[in-house]
Amino acid sequence: MSRLRRDKQMLVMMLPGVLFLLVFFYIPILGNVIAFQDYQPYLGIGDSLWVGWQNFSDLFINPDFVNAFWNTLYLAGWQLVFLFPVPLVLALIVDSLMSPRIRKVFQSIAYLPHFLSWVLVIAFFQQMLGGAGFINNSLRDMGMDTIPFMTNPDTFPVLVVVQMIWKDAGWAMIIFLAALASIDASLYEAAAADGAGRWRRVWHITLPGLRPVIVLLLILRIGDILSVGFEQFILQRDAVGAGAAEVLDTFTYYTGVVGGGWSSGAAAGLAKGVVSLVLIWGANKLAHKFGEDGIFAKKVG
Amino acid sequence: MATPLFTKKASGLASDSKRPVWKEKPSLFYQSIKAVVLVLFSISILAPMLLVVSTSLADNEQLVAAGGFVMWPERPTLEAYQTIFRGPMVLQSLGVSLFITVVGTLLALFVTITMAYATSRSVIFGRPVILAVLFTLLFAPGLIPSFLLIRELHLLDSLWSLILPGIFGAFNFVVMRSFFMNIPGELIESARIDGASDWQILWKIVLPLSKAVVAVVGLFYAVGFWNSFFNALLYINDHSKWPIQLLLRNFVVQGSGAADGLGITTTPPPQSIQMAVVVVALVPILMVYPFLQKHFAKGVITGAVKG
């Protein structure tokens, strides 16, 4: 009780944040119960009928949902294989630069796109690669066929990964650079004295030194795997078509908000959230098994 | 104040420009590969921006001669900008974006600072509150329940629907809190003994020491509010309340997207007008970018990520 009195002002300070969490996070979580209802807006949550797991079992025989599900996994695979290594490679190159000025200039350029909105990024890509964009205009002037970079469903995964690299690979470099800077330089010197060449030093010192960071980022990536990039997809879904560009998040939006299928939209969203939670928990467990800290390194308090 | 957040080491920027004796000089082959990668990556980022800015400034004659795009305006003109600012749409949407960015950032800073400071000290209920925040990093309530909530609160078509959901971010909270935790406890204890209240301590002692982190977190929130488009797509129907990003999406991205599908080469609004809208959305970010860079280069962010 005395602690309560002592901390009174601190508790008041927590109030705005706690209120925010309650209203905009924890109450909507409870709102997910409509996934188990046949929710009708005019009846509200209180009076809508309960249907148990019906919405979920409906989803799994809905070809659109199945398509969105596989698209999500497919695109996530592309990202994991082709996107994940890029910042690491860039960081290794930047770290090996001897001139601080070149480093600085490159970092200034590379970090910039991270702060642009997806709308701007897609606008830039359209002006460069779109049907009426710079490159296709030039091709047309030279009498050649145009290339549908932005609208071909088959090459959509490539486009998506290129856009992600353009926007965020530079920024993602930061964390690797910080980790590289924290590797003890005398290790390199000792290895070099023992006759280890450039590549052996990368293999035996740099990569092991980066291991905790790589593991951490992989775990976060895996937990995020079902959110392949909402804004990026919703902006391009019309141009490429739902066949290739529909992912779980856009499915939720179009089914629920646009189509009025509130309950099946909520069911899709809830299923995605729960699977992500399980994935991140599992990946973290796995990391602990391999002797890494993972994300919950027990220093919360 | 010995805070590890500001050590040069954490920024990854500090390195001797001298090559140590044991390090062999890379072969010409590797050096040229490195140079090519860095130069291509930089050009791919800068070229579209140059193209867009130049085209927005180009006059009609040059545009027609060049077939729609120019890399350098020969006779720069502000005609496109005069056109877009003549109608109410662009000005209105800029006003909306400015409003949600300024009000949103101020509210967000208030909520984040108070929450981060209160939980950075050993306080009753501190731990469960921190866990409640961290859980938001692992699980999202989902689109549909959030939409229904905004509707229940009667915030549809209100600018508050673009502000309130964004006034607290777990990542910014973590950055802020780990900074506050590095402020020595003796400083705060001695102020308390002198009879200062917690609010006075926060306002007069903690905040003056935390200008850099407040600037960074504030800029992060501001960029987030300025860039957000999806909330507006969800919650705002009234055209006069569109933020600039939604305007950009509907006029530029959707506009030329349709042209892509139909194979039309010239879209109804001339290129330079579209580009002018793009530039208008881009310029504020370019203006704050040097500040952003100055602070995160100091390692505020990386230090907090690692801590």
How many β-strand stretches of chain B? 0
- What is the structural class of chain B? mainly alpha
CATH topology assignment of chain A: MetI-like fold
Mean pLDDT of chain A: 87
Oligomer: heterodimer
Strand order across the largest sheet of chain A: 1-2
> How many independent structural domains of chain A?
1
DSSP summary: helix tally of chain A? 16
- Which spans of chain B of ≥5 residues are poorly predicted at pLDDT below 50? 1-16, 256-269, 302-307
Name of the level-1 CATH class of chain A: Mainly Alpha
- Give the overall form of chain B: globular
The helix fraction of chain B, in percent, is over 70%
Strand-residue fraction of chain A? under 5%
CATH homologous superfamily designation of the largest domain in chain B: MetI-like
Note the run of SSEs of chain B as H and E. HHHHHHHHHHHHHHHH
Distance between the termini of chain A: 22 Å
Mean pLDDT of chain B: 83
Find the structural class of chain A using helix and strand composition. Answer: mainly alpha
Q: What is the radius of gyration of chain A?
A: 24 Å
In this structure, how is the largest beta sheet of chain B organized? none
CATH architecture of chain A: Orthogonal Bundle
How are the secondary structure elements laid out?
The complex is a heterodimer of chains A (301) and B (307).
Chain A: H1 2-6, H2 8-31, E1 37-38, H3 44-47, E2 49-50, H4 54-60, H5 63-83, H6 85-96, H7 100-111, H8 118-129, H9 134-141, H10 156-181, H11 185-193, H12 198-223, H13 230-240, H14 242-245, H15 248-258, H16 262-289
Antiparallel strand pairs in A: 1-2
Chain B: H1 8-11, H2 28-57, H3 60-66, H4 79-86, H5 88-120, H6 126-138, H7 143-152, H8 160-163, H9 170-181, H10 185-193, H11 198-209, H12 211-227, H13 230-235, H14 244-262, H15 271-297, H16 300-306
Helix pairs in contact in B: 2-15, 4-15, 5-9, 5-12, 9-12, 9-16, 10-11, 12-15, 14-15
